[in-house]
Amino acid sequence: MIAGTIGVSIVAAILAMAVPALAQTDTNMSAPSQRAPISAPRTGAGDSMAMPSGGMDMSKAPAHFAPTRQAYTTNHRFLVTLTAVPKPIPFEKYFDLRFAVYDTKHPAKPLPDAGLALFAGMRHGLKHGFAHGMNSTPKIVDRDGVVTVSGMYFHMMGPWTLKVAVHSGSDTGVAYFQLPCCGS
């Protein structure tokens, strides 16, 4: 029972950070009748639960901005260019992207041995990481310095962030791209 109580205490502590009303809740599992009731915070909007101010933006409207076309890796080791992107990016349909990777010391020719890993998600107001990712697993094919990513699928409208991890030989780097979904 001790392990269960500790587990419940950890979960309650995590929830207390997310919902302040839970911070006052007793997590003693041995006396359920003595526990304080758990209630959602009042929103002032009737019976519906609204996001707290500063919460995640869950826009259903298309994003209207130009996609990022090139980005340096955070360590400035590589320049990654987005050479092909559909316009507009389709909503709830599969599409492909094409990238090229350049050595910043010799930017005239794409690196033939550069490999990519790609992670796509929406931040919904988060400064770091993703609130969620895509509902697909893209396939990445590298041919003569051109990297094709097929099977991209944006299931929500709004700004999407691509985290592109690059490796060439023993060098690595990460670049970020913003893509709008979806519309004209």
Q: How far is the first residue's CA from the last residue's CA?
A: 58 Å
Strand composition percent = 35-45%
Low-confidence sequence ranges? 1-56
User: What global shape is seen?
Assistant: globular
The helix content is under 10%
Radius of gyration: 22 Å
Q: Order of SSEs, N→C?
A: HEEEEEEEEEE
Q: How would you classify the helix and strand content by structural class?
A: mainly beta
Mean pLDDT equals 74
Give the SSE layout:
Layout: H1 2-18, E1 70-72, E2 78-84, E3 94-103, E4 106-110, E5 115-122, E6 132-133, E7 139-143, E8 146-153, E9 158-168, E10 171-181
What are the key terms here?
184 residues, mainly beta, six-stranded antiparallel sheet, four-stranded antiparallel sheet, 10 strands, 9% helix, globular, disordered N terminus
Descriptive report:
- With 184 residues, the protein is mainly beta.
- Helix content is 9%, strand content 38%.
- The protein has 1 helix and 10 strands; from the N terminus they run H-E-E-E-E-E-E-E-E-E-E.
- The strands form 2 sheets. Strands 1, 2, 3, 4, 7 and 8 form a 6-stranded antiparallel sheet that branches. Strands 6-5-9-10 form a 4-stranded antiparallel sheet, with no helix packed on it.
- A hairpin with a 2-residue loop joins strand 9 and strand 10.
- The radius of gyration is 22 Å and the shape is globular.
- The termini are far apart.
